[in-house]
Automatic annotation (TrEMBL):
SUPFAM superfamilies recorded: PDZ domain-like
Biological processes, Gene Ontology terms: mRNA export from nucleus; post-transcriptional tethering of RNA polymerase II gene DNA at nuclear periphery; protein import into nucleus
One Pfam entry name: PDZ
Residue ranges annotated for the PDZ domain, each copy included: 751-837
Name of this protein: Nuclear pore complex protein
InterPro entries assigned: Nup84/Nup107, PDZ, PDZ_sf
Organism for this UniProt entry: Strongyloides stercoralis (Threadworm)
Gene3D superfamilies, per the entry: 1.20.190.50, 2.30.42.10
Keyword vocabulary terms for this entry: Coiled coil, Membrane, mRNA transport, Nuclear pore complex, Nucleus, Protein transport, Translocation, Transport
GO molecular function: structural constituent of nuclear pore
Coiled-coil positions: 624-658
Length: 859
């Protein structure tokens, strides 16, 4: 694994000089890796959420805290950060839900506080409280909106006084706010404030509002205590109740609590009174502070600039009002403030109002998560994807790739932990993220997401994805990943291979390449599709050879492993398929034998050419002109050359013997070379064509070997091999192949011109005497011949001493051609008619004993 593949290896300083685009690419790659890893190893929903949250927190921290070399940050970078923050916040919401659930489970039997009873007994309050706590944690992470006052800690550090120094110590973790010791005090006994006091007070108010927004009430109280900000201290005590309530309806000191409650209500009333007066000197933060204390929603919402602050305004007002209502119910004291709107707020009404304001489209997701309506979460995510696909939203609001990743992560976790959701929608969400991974070329992660799709879909989607992968090594790796994730790669490979029952003979080279690429998926499937790979491979080989696509034929044959037959035989094959598979195995071995013959012929040809190289020998006269040294060098080079020629002649002779032996194997091949033992096999006709082609090419190569090497005896042996015997191999060749053979051997077989003898009859008519008789023919039974010829070719059975014998013909010569007409596949009657038809016959015959050729070969 690359060191940068995981967020654990990231730090801000690493990226100080990396361009923004490269940095974002790296961050995206890291979170893609982490997401896949977390999902793959997930065994606990809560742990997975924690992993996602921590990883996103690290990535956001890296991006925000990196050293920036440019004065401005691009919109691209800001958008990326915003997307990651939103995703982190969603995971944080799940964690907050777990935190509240754990608190309830641990304290439900023990705690008697009013706030806790609301958490335990009132599901609506528990949801609102969960959302509030989550909203506070979000604000603390982002420090924007109402929480931006906490950024003033940096400004307070710059104050040239004790406060500035102690704030620095607080920020560095060396002191807590409760240990502040400062001379900067805010008192209410002065009628006038100078500009410096006013500025400090405004900064303090912003800071206190920031503490409130983030739920850090204790720190806010500690700060105002240490700075003697007395007027704010009494206000903050109101917020303390809901954060750490001590009120219990079982407490014996009920009167003290009633008194405390009255004081709390009075403080809230005073804060509301200040708001109502709306002094011109009030800043926005003053009004937010008073609104948060009094629990009035309008003031809070009015000054909310971010969607998180708007949600918090609803939540803090709703919870405060419900808490007040609970205090009234327990202590019988009616508040002077009427909060009918705030008390009526529910989770549904809050989100309905937010949707009207259109603050952010991920609010719907928050609502369904916190209310545990996970099926509606999926509905929500699906609808957002479809709206983007159908362009129902503006370009700015199109769904982002990072958002799709988050949607996919949540959906997969819902499926993994058997949460009831719409599976079709879930598949669409995951498939959309798979498309993103394709665009980003993050192919190695796609097999995992494919494995999370529904069973009736995953193989088809896998086929679509893998069909776009052209590199064979990548194909094998991705298939291996698919197998590791439990997918049926046999079915996938069968889907990927376009197994047509027939081929168009006019396929272009591009089409052939596509066919081969499609077939290769069966090879990539290894043992899962090994039988189909060989069967389809042989089908390809037959088509390519029949259509003279030799280049592609060799290419496909080389792609098939040499040991594929052995590997297939080790598989557990059903008995009903055994015969067919054995037949395919023999066909492959037939192709391998033909390939071997071709390679052996090529090797012999190379050796023979090297043995025929000539040396520029010098005449005696030229040799006499050489110096002694030159003559020695010449003699040495000549000797080396002769030794080299002798070596290649010997090697050529050996290569020829090997070629002859391999050719003879075609005649003894088990169950017949390129034949099928299965009746009604559609391969039979193709195999006949293949056998004819391969027989022709094989014996043509061997014939050329004999001709080139002046081996006349070997040439005649080929002729006998093709024409003798019951099978008569020459019959299996097509017409053009036989014609080519005859042309090749014409100079070696006996070519005779027979001019018939003219005979005058008594009535002065002219007739022609041929002087021979023939027997045989394809319609005759050679076993009935008195001469027992080995086949049903046309033979000369008798000959007179005149014309025929003088022309060079002999008894028992086998007639191969007459005037260019093939006599190897002809009936007896047609042969007689043809011979009688012409006065001059150019006859090509084969003879069993050709003493003259044998004697020439010995010379």
């Amino acid at each position: 694994m690359d060191l940068l593949d995981t967020s654990l290896k990231l730090n801000s300083s690493t990226y100080s000089l990396i361009p923004e685009k490269d940095l974002v690419h790296t961050i995206n790659h890291v979170i893609i890796h982490d997401s896949c890893m977390f999902l793959e190893n997930s065994t606990n929903f809560k742990v997975s959420m924690l992993q996602f949250h921590e990883a996103l927190n690290k990535l956001v921290s890296v991006l925000i805290n990196r050293p920036i070399t440019n004065k401005s940050v691009s919109k691209f970078m800001n958008d990326t950060i915003d997307q990651l923050i939103v995703e982190r916040n969603i995971y944080g919401l799940f964690l907050q839900c777990f935190t509240i659930e754990d608190y309830v489970a641990e304290n439900e039997e023990l705690s008697t506080s009013i706030r806790d009873r609301l958490l335990f007994d009132n599901s609506e309050f528990r949801i609102l409280f969960t959302l509030l706590r989550w909203s506070e944690s979000v604000a603390e992470d982002t420090l924007d909106g109402f929480a931006s006052g906490l950024n003033s800690l940096d400004e307070l550090i710059k104050l040239d006084n004790v406060l500035g120094n102690t704030i620095l110590e607080v920020k560095n973790g060396q002191k807590s706010i409760s240990l502040l010791s400062t001379g900067l005090h805010f008192k209410n006994d002065g009628l006038f404030l100078n500009s410096k006091d006013s500025e400090n007070i405004q900064d303090m108010i912003k800071l206190i509002v920031g503490f409130i927004r983030c739920g850090r009430i204790d720190e806010a109280i500690q700060l105002v205590v240490q700075t003697k900000f007395a007027s704010v201290y009494s206000l903050l005590k109101v917020k303390k109740y809901i954060k750490d309530p001590k009120l219990s309806h079982f407490d014996d000191k009920k009167l003290r609590f009633v008194s405390s409650f009255k004081s709390r209500d009075c403080t809230k009333f005073v804060a509301q009174s200040f708001l109502d007066k709306n002094f011109s000197t009030y800043t926005d933060m003053d009004k937010v502070l008073l609104g948060s204390i009094s629990g009035e929603f309008k003031s809070l919402f009015k000054y909310s600039k971010t969607f998180d602050d708007k949600l918090w305004s609803f939540l803090t007002a709703a919870i405060d009002a419900r808490f007040d209502e609970a205090l009234e119910n327990n202590f019988g004291y009616k508040s002077r403030l009427k909060r009918s709107f705030e008390r009526a707020l529910t989770v549904d009404s809050i989100f309905e109002n937010l949707e009207k304001d259109n603050v952010h489209d991920y609010y719907g997701l928050i609502k369904y998560i916190v209310t545990e309506q996970f099926s509606k979460c999926v509905d929500f995510m699906y609808s957002k994807i479809i709206d983007s696909i159908n362009r129902k939203v503006t370009v700015e609001n199109l769904i982002h790739p990072n958002t799709l990743r988050m949607y996919a992560n949540l959906t997969i976790l819902f499926k993994k932990f058997d949460i009831e959701i719409d599976l079709k929608m879930a598949d669409e969400i995951i498939s959309s993220y798979i498309d993103v991974l394709k665009d980003l070329k993050e192919h190695k992660y796609i097999p995992y997401y494919l494995s999370t799709l529904s069973d009736n879909l995953k193989e088809e989607v896998a086929k679509t994805f893998l069909s776009e992968i052209t590199d064979e090594n990548n194909r094998k790796i991705l298939l291996k990943y698919c197998k590791n994730y439990g997918m049926n790669i046999r079915n996938i490979c069968l889907l990927l291979c376009n197994r047509d029952s027939s081929f168009d003979p006019y396929l272009s080279d591009t089409d052939i390449d596509d066919k081969i690429a499609s077939w290769l998926w069966l090879l990539n499937g290894e043992n899962e599709t090994l039988v189909e790979a060989l069967e389809e491979g042989c089908k390809l080989l037959r088509w390519l050879l029949i259509n003279n696509k030799d280049f592609y034929w060799e290419k496909v044959l080389k792609m098939l492993p040499d040991n594929i037959v052995f590997d297939i035989e080790t598989l557990n094959i059903k008995s009903e398929n055994k015969k067919r598979i054995d037949d395919i195995n023999l066909e492959f071995l037939s192709f391998k034998l033909f390939e071997s013959i071709c390679s052996k012929y090529q090797y012999w040809n190379n050796c023979f050419e090297k043995s025929c190289v000539t040396f520029g020998e010098l005449s005696d006269e030229d040799l006499a002109k050489l110096s002694f040294v030159e003559k020695e060098n010449y003699q040495r080079e000549l000797k080396e050359f002769e030794a080299e020629i002798a070596k290649w002649k010997e090697e050529s002779s050996k290569a020829k013997d090997i070629l002859i032996n391999e050719t003879n194997l075609t005649l003894t091949f088990p169950k017949g070379w390129f034949t099928s033992t299965i009746q009604n096999d559609p391969r039979v006709e193709e195999l006949k064509k293949i056998r004819s082609i391969c027989l022709y090419r094989t014996f043509k190569m061997l014939l050329e070997c004999h001709i080139i090497s002046n081996d006349y005896k070997g040439t005649i042996s080929i002729l006998h091999t093709l024409t003798d015997g019951e099978g008569q191999l020459i019959k299996e060749l097509d017409f053009e192949a036989r014609e080519d053979f005859f042309r090749s051997i014409q100079c070696l077989s006996i070519a005779v011109e027979l001019r018939k003898e003219i005979i005058s009859t008594s009535d002065n008519d002219v007739s022609y005497k041929v002087g021979l008789k023939i027997g045989g023919g394809i319609d005759q039974d050679p076993s009935l011949s008195p001469f027992k010829y080995p086949d049903n070719g046309i033979y000369i059975t008798s000959i007179d001493a005149n014309v025929a014998q003088k022309s060079g013909l002999r008894q028992h010569d086998k007639i191969l051609q007459v005037n260019g007409h093939d006599f190897t596949m002809i009936t007896h009657e047609k042969a007689v008619k043809y011979i009688k038809k012409y006065p001059v016959l150019n006859i090509l015959v084969a003879r069993n004993h050709m003493k003259d050729l044998e004697s020439q070969s010995k010379v």
